[in-house]
Amino acid sequence: MKVSIIMPVYNTPTEWLVASIKSILNQTHHDFEFIIINDASTSIEVSKVILDFKKIDNRIHLIELHDNCGLPACLNLGIEYASSNLIFRMDSDDISYPERIQKQLDFLDKNPEVDVLGAAMNYTAQINSEWGVSTRIISKPYIVNKEYAVKNHFLLIHPTVVFKKDKIQKIGGYNKNLRGLPEDFDLWVRCLQSNYIIRNLQEPVLTYRVNDKGLSNNFNSEASEFIHMLQKQIINLP
Question: What are the structural domains, with CATH classification, of the chain?
Answer without folding.
Answer: 3-234 (3.90.550.10)
